[in-house]
Amino acid sequence: MPTEKKRKIIHVDMDAFFASVEQLDHPELRGKPIAVGGTSDRGVVAAASYEARKYGVRSAMSSKVAKRKCPNLIFVKHRFERYKEISAQIRSIFLEYTDLVEPLSLDEAYLDVTYAKKGQPSATLIAKEIRQRIFEETGLTASAGVSYNKFLAKVASDVNKPNGMFVVTPDKAQDFIDQLEIRKFFGIGKVTAKKLNDIGVWYGGDLKMIDRLELTRMFGKAGNYYYDICRGIDNREVQPSRERKSVGAENTFSQDLFLEDELKKELLVIAEKVWERADRSGVKAKTVTLKFKYADFEQHTRSKTIEPYINTKERFITESLKLMKSEGGFVKGIRLLGLTLSNFLHEQEGEIGVQLVIEF
């Protein structure tokens, strides 16, 4: 086993969070297959209840496909302010036990309870207590993974989902990893998993047979990460604040758009939203990225970097329109447009930088 200093890490993941909040607030939806988002024919599912997941409905799935898989599916409009409200309530519970809370999204976070502020010295008992308090104070269930590093805690939280907990102790870690399917490794996506499967790597134990040099040859820097995690090594600390990398917005249209005037009109609406978010956050961005998706789901992005940074909304809109015009006309109907501002200016570059904390 690795000689790294053993921490006590908990990964808490709310169960079907958005969908569960809707079922909590609307009793008539309980026990029924529901999907948050995707309310139009061209929409996309943001979250699905466990009743819907039994039919194969998943987040990021088009509403058409979701409805085909589950004819009785009920679509519900999202209410992000409500989700943020409950998320903040949950985070306040976390902070009673430790200041080392790293939110990953509204519905999940890492907690380092090596030196907990209250409760039992056992991370397992703390996780149990936190899950109980979440249920008592919000009416929602959460799953948790407990281990000595972030990778193992994250993977463990999925083992007994929903409303469960799993603990990976240092002495059991290697056996757990050896028997873990590659597709369940956090940090290994579908493409990488298939590439590994193609060379006979299906489990953690198989991955451990490949040396570091070969993994870095195949996957670049990520190969070092794969080499370490299959040996239970992950020295990443729980970071209470996470720097935001981009601000963006996009829109999926109810009907495919073909005309330049129509696309320009929609792009201006999206640009207004993005600039408002960037302005509210206080960030100064250098790079603007245009994203567009054709009717057949073929997707492209185009980016441009401006020095020293994009200083006005007018400049942002101008550059966004230039990116769209640079395509020289779209060859097929457009179903989605999106804009993103990124590559933020920092203090060391002579400007006042703003570090953003992801809302929880």
TrEMBL record:
<dbReference type="InterPro" id="IPR022880">
    <property type="entry name" value="DNApol_IV"/>
</dbReference>
<protein>
    <recommendedName>
        <fullName>DNA polymerase IV</fullName>
        <ecNumber>2.7.7.7</ecNumber>
    </recommendedName>
</protein>
<feature type="domain" description="UmuC">
    <location>
        <begin position="9"/>
        <end position="189"/>
    </location>
</feature>
<dbReference type="GO" id="GO:0003684">
    <property type="term" value="F:damaged DNA binding"/>
</dbReference>
<keyword id="KW-0479">Metal-binding</keyword>
<dbReference type="Pfam" id="PF11798">
    <property type="entry name" value="IMS_HHH"/>
</dbReference>
<feature type="binding site">
    <location>
        <position position="13"/>
    </location>
    <ligand>
        <name>Mg(2+)</name>
    </ligand>
</feature>
<feature type="active site">
    <location>
        <position position="108"/>
    </location>
</feature>
<dbReference type="Pfam" id="PF11799">
    <property type="entry name" value="IMS_C"/>
</dbReference>
<dbReference type="Pfam" id="PF00817">
    <property type="entry name" value="IMS"/>
</dbReference>
<dbReference type="InterPro" id="IPR001126">
    <property type="entry name" value="UmuC"/>
</dbReference>
<comment type="subunit">
    <text>Monomer.</text>
</comment>
<dbReference type="InterPro" id="IPR043502">
    <property type="entry name" value="DNA/RNA_pol_sf"/>
</dbReference>
<feature type="binding site">
    <location>
        <position position="107"/>
    </location>
    <ligand>
        <name>Mg(2+)</name>
    </ligand>
</feature>
<keyword id="KW-0234">DNA repair</keyword>
<keyword id="KW-0808">Transferase</keyword>
<dbReference type="GO" id="GO:0000287">
    <property type="term" value="F:magnesium ion binding"/>
</dbReference>
<keyword id="KW-0963">Cytoplasm</keyword>
<dbReference type="InterPro" id="IPR050116">
    <property type="entry name" value="DNA_polymerase-Y"/>
</dbReference>
<comment type="function">
    <text>Poorly processive, error-prone DNA polymerase involved in untargeted mutagenesis. Copies undamaged DNA at stalled replication forks, which arise in vivo from mismatched or misaligned primer ends. These misaligned primers can be extended by PolIV. Exhibits no 3'-5' exonuclease (proofreading) activity. May be involved in translesional synthesis, in conjunction with the beta clamp from PolIII.</text>
</comment>
<dbReference type="GO" id="GO:0009432">
    <property type="term" value="P:SOS response"/>
</dbReference>
<dbReference type="InterPro" id="IPR024728">
    <property type="entry name" value="PolY_HhH_motif"/>
</dbReference>
<dbReference type="GO" id="GO:0042276">
    <property type="term" value="P:error-prone translesion synthesis"/>
</dbReference>
<dbReference type="InterPro" id="IPR043128">
    <property type="entry name" value="Rev_trsase/Diguanyl_cyclase"/>
</dbReference>
<keyword id="KW-0460">Magnesium</keyword>
<dbReference type="InterPro" id="IPR017961">
    <property type="entry name" value="DNA_pol_Y-fam_little_finger"/>
</dbReference>
<dbReference type="GO" id="GO:0006261">
    <property type="term" value="P:DNA-templated DNA replication"/>
</dbReference>
<keyword id="KW-0548">Nucleotidyltransferase</keyword>
<dbReference type="GO" id="GO:0006281">
    <property type="term" value="P:DNA repair"/>
</dbReference>
<dbReference type="GO" id="GO:0005829">
    <property type="term" value="C:cytosol"/>
</dbReference>
<keyword id="KW-0239">DNA-directed DNA polymerase</keyword>
<keyword id="KW-0238">DNA-binding</keyword>
<dbReference type="GO" id="GO:0003887">
    <property type="term" value="F:DNA-directed DNA polymerase activity"/>
</dbReference>
<dbReference type="InterPro" id="IPR036775">
    <property type="entry name" value="DNA_pol_Y-fam_lit_finger_sf"/>
</dbReference>
<feature type="site" description="Substrate discrimination">
    <location>
        <position position="18"/>
    </location>
</feature>
<keyword id="KW-0235">DNA replication</keyword>
<comment type="similarity">
    <text>Belongs to the DNA polymerase type-Y family.</text>
</comment>
<keyword id="KW-0515">Mutator protein</keyword>
<keyword id="KW-0227">DNA damage</keyword>
